Predict the 3D structure of the following.
Amino acid sequence: MRARPIFRTGAIEKNRLEAFSDGVIAIVITLLVLELKVPAGIADETGLRHALAHLAPAVAAWVISFLFVLVFWVNHHYFIASLRQADRGLLWLNGLFLLCISATPFPTGLVGEYPGMTLPLVILSLSMAVTSLAFAAMRLYVGVNRSLAEHEPPTGQARKASLWTSAAVRDRRVRRRAAGGPRARLQTIRSQGRG
């Protein structure tokens, strides 16, 4: 009997992949806000102000995590839109990404509950880093398996990406020269045609 491969079993419609992912991400965002608890048993406005001030770290952690998930939701949307189709390998990698992003509420809750401690911040940072790696693995998989992607990127996207990369490299060189002191700064100014 021949073993069935986990990856690469043919094309699959991408719409189910996107719908499932959107659903999981919506649940993650909902779980994030559940970490914010309304203060109970407050008798006056001063007590309420104090209780709300005590909630500030939890609110900050929620906003940061919400933005983190939102950025991935937007990028995931454009990633899926750039696909012609999916395959079983991409489904598994997308599942890994969803597993990682669905863990975000736990470290977010830790940061809100234990503000000022290092360990909750480390756990949240690691969670975000692993989620980023899982998303990068999906993109790499599609880059290697070009049959999944559209033949050409959407109009202007490749050019914009090239311009952003060029600008980032140029800015890095400028910062490196500026860090070298007055002589390096003068060289930078001259090389940009202002001197």
